[in-house]
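#lab-general

N.A. 3:47 PM
ok so I finally got the sequence cleaned up, no stray characters, all 290 residues accounted for. can someone with queue access submit it? mine expired

B.Y. 3:52 PM
send it over

N.A. 3:53 PM
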Amino acid sequence: GPYNVLKDLAKLKCGFPLAGVGLIGNDADGKTILQDCDAHGIDRSGLQTTEAAPTSYTDVMTVTNSGRRTFFHQHGANALLNMDHFDLPRTSARIFYLGYMCLLRRLDVVGGDGRTPASRLFEQAKAVGMVTVADLVSNETSDFPNVVNSSLAHLNYLFLNEYELARLAGGPVTKDPVELESRARVVLERGVQGAVIVHLPEGALCVRPGQPALRQPAVRIPAAMIAGTVGAGDAFGTGFLLGLHEGWELPQCLELAVCAAAVSLRDATSSAAIEPWEKCLAFGRQLGFY
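B.Y. 4:20 PM
back already:
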């Protein structure tokens, strides 16, 4: 998530500094990431290297005729990432994004007090004035609600899809707009201070405390233009974060989010199809929305 988001922001030509924090292996994949960060102008001074595990990666297998995906994840170095690898008081960044909760083993450990190290990182980030953002992954871990719930009171924004929302709020997976809003508000009431943003192929739903829900339909992208859906959720989050950083109203953030996601579908990789944000908006508006 963080790697895709940083690359996508660079390719959107966001115009503000980008920096990554993380743990990679001392291997070819790790070296490729460092070179890629340099090529995209991403500050990688916060990326540390370990000999204890390989660089994390995910192989995604997609069924051509249905689009159904299966993920094979190597936890690798991400499983060793812990609070000691972060030095948040020294950063000048405005937004702290952490992804993906439920795939970061040491940061996901629920302690005797019900807190995770990830929740403490979000608390630290807020204490130094940063906007906190989390993204989830559709992991089958039985502890999913406890891992996520401990961070909610320290979050400004939470991204999740309809599967993750069902795991968090309870009930079967659904795309019913009324039920999605109801569940999103359940999560919001657990402490998220800004908004809970649910993204799915049909569009996005954004719920905020004490305000009507915002809905943004997806772009009408022809099936013939879709090369793959890997990274579309990260592209969505990237578009939203760019608007958030620039002080846009949330409806405009959501519009860029679905446009960036649509643009990303044109290539099988996570970031190769991303273009400057003005072109993403123009692409989506030209095709129209559902």
